[in-house]
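[User]
Protein folding is very new to me. Any chance you could explain this protein sequence and its structure tokens? I have pasted everything here:
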Amino acid sequence: MINDILLYIGSIVITMWGIGHIIPTKSVVSGFGTISEDKKRIITMGWIAEGLTLCFIGLLVLFITIWGRSQNPIAINVYRASALMLIIMAVLTSLTGARTSVIWIKICPYVKTIVAVLFILGVYL
């Protein structure tokens, strides 16, 4: 039971974080000032892609937990893979975006890591 609660919390947090990534895309891109249309499209693509990836991970874990038994081997592999992907994304963000002065990007690796820990705890508790 506690494992499902941890999985639900983690999946909702990371889904909301992904939505929070997508919503301000226009203002994020405009924050770069005068840049070429190609660069605007690339930044837009990357920003939305990360948000969609976070939403996908969160919704995948949420629906696997709702529709299946959270402790079956397939579900456990999904939780582990999702946690691993979040850790990889956290490292990437730590080495790139988190080195900027934007506070939301600075805390992003921590959010991803905390959710990854929730997913792992959801497997082992």
User: Anything to note?
Assistant: The chain has one domain: 2-124. DSSP finds five helices and no strands in the chain. The radius of gyration is 16 Å.
